[in-house]
Amino acid sequence: SNVSYQQGLIMEAHCPLTMPISKQPLTDTYTADPKPFARGKFATVRRCKHKETGVEYAAKCIRKRRRAADVRHEIMHEMFVLKLSDSCQHIIHLHEVYETSSEVILVLEMAAGGELQRVLDDQEVIAETEASRVMRQILEGVAFLHQRGIAHLDIKPQNLLLTQAFPQCDVKLCDFGISRRITKGSEIREILGTPDYVSPEILQYEPISLATDMWSIGVLAYVLLSGHTPFGGETKQETFWNITSGIVEFPEELFGSVSNDAKDFIQRLLITEPSERMTAKESLHHSWIRMFCDPESPGIDVAKIGYTLKDESNAEVSVSAEVAE
Ligand code: ADP
Ligand code: MG
């Protein structure tokens, strides 16, 4: 079985990742809250409950047309990435898919603890043991994607969900709306992402790579430990200038009680040259990630994948996943 790609999007043709898409009304099977509990630019997310099992889910309803353009293929890509990530504990699980004339509805596992952003709003900074544990779980999700050649490209606290109230929770990645499959020879240059978390190569219109996510992970660690963004300016322009300057500072008033290991972790990610940043796998081996590691935890979650992929030129590329050591 094969998967093909166009501009970093997984395409539908012969895709083994396809799920049955139901044309029945969602409300035949679920009772859905009429009001969304969250909304993004093109999606609304509603709580719904399976009528038979009583299990709660989050229904992400995504409009198929945006500014008069048909973007169904982009939503299908989001579905494929979620399906591909079925076996990863740190990526939100896709349960079912529905389609109406105007929307695609992704019925997702409900992350009852909400966004990591809400924890930051409530408590400003997160203790190092917790921050390290949160980062390790995110890195496990990102390593899983990167092993399959997929860059998330929008890693930020709004797209990181908690299974329960913090801190007795697991962390899962969500929102693969702008994720892209990175292939050698196809250089994707797009302006994507969120100002504070965006990498220098995106701002310079240089090729996107898996390392683009690692920059955002460095920003995230900085934010969790200090309650401040490393490059935030008064205006978007100023923020972008700060990002491209290549200067990262750890002011004493914010980082006075933060360990050198944590700062070293951040410094090895917030590097302008993408190829010099730690990879997801290397990050998982950094002392700051390992030092708080629960010896009981299963460790790096990596599964073998067994299908062949096709790149833009239709050449077969076998994606062999690495096995966790
Ligand atoms: P968008 O592409 O519009 O940003 P997201 O997938 O990020 O869409 O969903 C928007 C918001 O909805 C998230 O930031 C989160 O607050 C909430 N959300 C999305 N999926 C879930 C889920 N499975 N469980 C709980 N909340 C969710
Ligand atoms: Mg989002």
From TrEMBL:
Residues 31-289 form the Protein kinase domain. It comes from the Eukaryota. Keywords: ATP-binding, Kinase, Nucleotide-binding, Serine/threonine-protein kinase, Transferase. This is Serine/threonine-protein kinase 17B-like. It comes from Limulus polyphemus. The chain holds residues 3 to 327 of 425 of the full protein.
